[in-house]
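I'd like us to work through together how a protein chain folds, taking it slowly. We need material for that, and I hope you will provide a protein of your own picking. Go ahead whenever you are ready, and we will take it from there:
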Amino acid sequence: MPERNLDFDRVIDRRNTRCLKYDFAVRRGMPEDVLPLWVADMDFETSSYVEDALVERAKEGIFGYSEVQTPYFEIVKNWMVRHHGWEPKERWLVKTPGIVFALAMAVKAYTEVGDSVLIQQPVYYPFSEVIRDNGRIVVSSDLYLGEDGRYHIDFEDFEAKIIEHQIKLFLLCSPHNPVGRVWTKEELVRLGEICLKHEVIVVSDEIHQDFVFQGKHQVFAGIRKEFEDISITCTSPSKTFNLAGMMISNLFIPNQEMRRRMRKQLDAAGISQLGVMGLVACEAAYEKGEEWYDAMHRYLRENIEFVANYVREQLPGVSMTDHEGTYLVWLDFRKTGKSVDELEELIIHKAKLWLDSGKIFGDSGKGFQRINVACPRSVLKEALDRIKKNL
């Protein structure tokens, strides 16, 4: 049976579907009629193979406690081998209901209350939340925007922050959300050597690994055997196949003691089996979703190019950082001369757009906006036209 869901130009009405992206604007403090391009899910139907697998499982009519065995792991492993040249071991696998949950469990497993945890802002805002909400201290070695339009790591500052704050745990975002960097092997080697030197555990959030448009994604744990021993690799089909509501993530923890400590935290949180539909969706996506993934990836590449051209030609004072990975584009409004509050007023109340304000990613994100381009191009054009009209 051929793949059916390949029309990415089709606009799907997601309102009144219990959709966080569309149905909760007022509750989140936004005008009711905003166009939402904020939270990282796609406005595309997932692979028809995933749909069919879920329908068939639903027909069984019994939804008791469920678990998966070796075939599930083999399917996940084969995707990693095929797309990223990395072959994890079955004993490393720890499944969790989402990566943000896993980050919180890692903070609790590998640090104590009052410890400092290192991040690189501007970065996905739940990184800070899971640190603060668990009684730890956020320390950031901020990325800096170079003249080449790309963000870079200040390695000297990174190591200094580790020493000064006695860092035990570093949360790495790779590819980086929101700045769109796909870290090179050389950059990750340098980070890894610093972390090895100072005995820092690396939790590598690689959820956007399948959205690379320039360069090549490097699995941090796959670069060196020594990195494998200090790292937790966080993966999920949720971004790749638009399955965020399925609450399924696959962690790989090669170090036995680190794996034991993570499982202890999961036990303490009352987590055992995950939802059966997430497990079924993950298997179907990784085993049969290749055609859909390839077509979606091409469409997103064209969307990113569309935004880059539009910003350059029609939005004076706005620039787009050189985009290498993720489907979340980082726009710089600082040369428009507008303050952070004026920019919020323009985006939300004049243009009637719900984007993610850069300020929620840390102080270094002020003056920026993150826009989700995983939508039909007509919707994307409408959003950019609204910015142009009100700018």
Observations:
- The CA atoms of residues 82 and 266 lie 30 Å apart.
- The chain has a mean pLDDT of 97.
- Residues 290-314 form the longest helix (25 residues).
- The two ends are 48 Å apart (CA to CA).
